[in-house]
Design brief:
This protein has 18 helices and 18 strands. It is α/β, with parallel strands linked by helices and 536 residues long. Strand 15, helix 15 and strand 16 form a beta-alpha-beta unit. The radius of gyration is 29 Å and the shape is flat.
Length: 536
Amino acid sequence: MIQASNISLRFGKKALFEEVNIKFTEGNCYGIIGANGAGKSTFLKILSGELEPTTGEISLGPGERLSVLEQDHFKYDDQIVLDTVIAGNQKLYDIMKEKDAIYAKEDFSEEDGMRASELEAEFATMNGWEAEADAATLLNGLGIATEVHYKQMSELPDTDKVKVLLARALFGNPDILLLDEPTNHLDLDSIRWLEEFLIDFENTIIVVSHDRYFLNKVCTHTVDLDYGKMQIYAGNYDFWYESSQLMIKQMKEANKKKEEKIKELQEFIQRFSANASKSKQATSRKRALEKIELDTLRPSSRKYPYVDFKPDREIGNEVLTVTNLSKTIDGEKVLDNVSFTVGHDDKIAFVGSYGIAATTLFQILAGEMEPDEGDYKWGITTSNSYFPKDNTAYFDSNDTIVDWLMPFSPEKDATYVRGFLGRMLFKGDDGLKKVNVLSGGEKVRVMLSKMMMLGSNVLLMDEPTNHLDMESITSVNNGLIKFPGVVLFTSQDHQFIQTIANRIIEFTPNGMIDKVTTYDEYLDSDEMARKRQALS
C-alpha cells in the first residue's frame, strides 16, 4: 500500500498538483493517464521520494519495499548485468556482498563467524539462495540471453540496458512497483512477457504508459490526472474512456434540463411579475430560479491533433516490387535476399525483435541507402513519403518550423502553413520556433505535417508513435485507418498494429515470414509460431 496525503507541487505561481489525496492498495495495478505535461512522471517521482512535494506526505505500509524503473541507462555501466538486477533488492544485495567479504578473509575470527551466521539466516529468509536463478529468469524472459548475464553493463546496447533496468525493478517481489513507460524500447515479445508478469504480480503496481493495449491488458484501475486533480476509475483504459464520456454526456443532459427549467421560470416571471394576483408566484419562482446551478463542464486539458492523410492521386494496381534485396552493415547481413510484392490495398506492419532489418529496408525504399544486391521498383502511379525512426539529421537547421515546411506546402504562403500547424497543436508564434530546439514530440508532429502536405499515396513509417502522447497516438492511429493508400510501417504499439495492418511481415535473423492477416490472428496462429521457431 502507498498513500499520498494532501500532495501539492508548485513551481512559482503554477500548481502542478493541488491537494491530491489518493491511496493505492495491494493486488491492484493503477494506470496513470493524462496529457503531456500534466505531471504523470513527476507524480511517480514524488511517490518514490526522488522529488519533494510543496506540501503533503507519502506513506507506505509498515516494512514495505518500493521499487522503481530507473531511466538512466548508463548508471550501472561499471557493474555486471546479473549484479545490477539483484541489487534491485538493495538489502539482499548488501547481505550477499558482506557475506562474501567475510568468507574471503584469511584471518576469519569468531566474531566474523557469528556475523556470517546472522547474515546467512537473514539471507535464507529473503530467499537469497534463489536470487541468481530468479534474476536470470527475469532477464531471459525479457530476451537477454544467458551468455550476457555476466557481461559488464557498459558492453550492452541501449535496448538491452533498458531490459536489465526493468528486470532490476521487478526483482525480489517488491511490495510497490513504480513503472514509468516500461514498454519503451522493448520489442513486442518482451512486451507480451511483461504483460503476463504484471498480470500475475500480486502486490501494488503504479504505471505510466502511452501504450493503450498494454494499459487495457494489465490495469485494474485507471487514474485520470487532469488540471492537477486525480480521480480513480475501477477498470482499464477503455473502461475509463467509456465512463468519462458517459459522465460528460449525462452532465450535458442534466444541464440541458436545467436550462429548460430556467427558461420556463424566466418566461413566467416576465409574464406575471407586474400582475398583482400572480406576484407571489412570480417571486417564489424567482427564488427557485436563483437556486438552479448549472454544473460546470470544464474542458479536458487533453488536445488531439488533426491527422488526415489525403493522397493527391489514386494509387494503381502496381505499387512496389522488391526483388532479392541484400544489405550488410558493419559486417552484419541485415537484409538477406528479401523479396515481396505490395498490392494497392496493403497496410503492412513489419514486426519482430529484428528491427534493424525493417529500418534498413525503409531507408533503401526511401532512396536514402543503396542495397548491396537486388533491386526494387515503384509503380508509376505511386508517390511516397518517409517517416524515419531517427529524425535528428532532418532538423539540423536554424530554420523556423514555417520555413522548414514551406518547400513541402502546396501553397507557398506562411499564413497557410501556420494555419496547418494550428491543427497540429502549434499555436500562435510556435511556427516561428527554430526546428533544432524542438522537443521529440514536436519534431514528430512537424514530420507528420510534412507528410500530410506532400499528399503521397504510399506512406513509409518507422516507429511513428515514438515521443507522442496518447492523444496524438490516437489521432495518428485514426488517420492511418482512414488513409485510402498503402502503408508500410513499424510500431511497438499493439493496438496501433492491430487496428491498421491487414498484412504482417516479420524479419527474423534467418529469414522472413509474410502473412495476410491481422496482428492478433498472427500472434495466435500455431502455424506462424512454428515458422518463427524454425527461423529463430
